[in-house]
Design goal:
alpha+beta, two-stranded antiparallel ribbon, 38% helix, 12% strand, globular
Length: 109
């Protein structure tokens, strides 16, 4: 999709993907296709994944070139980071910080 990943990581309830975005795809279409192909791949890995499904929502943020290394470190340190704060609480704090309105129904559905 012409969106090479720079860093991928996460923990049991979410994943972070830092990628360079191509000019020919919307963020919504990229997430939709990423969920579709990864879901298909995971189900081929064994019966224990047959009930897997992605949550309905997602959060998508842009990152300036000057903050790439900080975001790469953040993604790399997910397990340690989320011992201190849940993903849902962190997402709420990030949305508040950037004055983004949200619907609580979609914070970790």
């Amino acid at each position: 999709m012409d969106c090479p990943p720079l860093r991928v990581g996460g923990v049991q309830d979410h994943v972070h993907i830092l990628a360079r975005f191509g000019r020919t795809i919307t963020q919504a279409d990229w997430v939709k296709e990423l969920k579709r192909v990864s879901n298909d791949w995971l189900k081929q890995q064994g019966r224990e994944y047959e009930d897997f499904q992605w949550q309905g929502g997602y959060a998508d943020f842009s990152v300036s070139q000057s903050n790439l290394e900080q975001v790469i470190r953040y993604i790399t340190n997910q397990p340690e980071h989320h011992r201190k704060m849940s993903f849902q609480d962190e997402l709420r704090a990030l949305l508040r910080k950037h004055q983004v309105e949200w619907d609580e129904r979609y914070i970790g559905d």
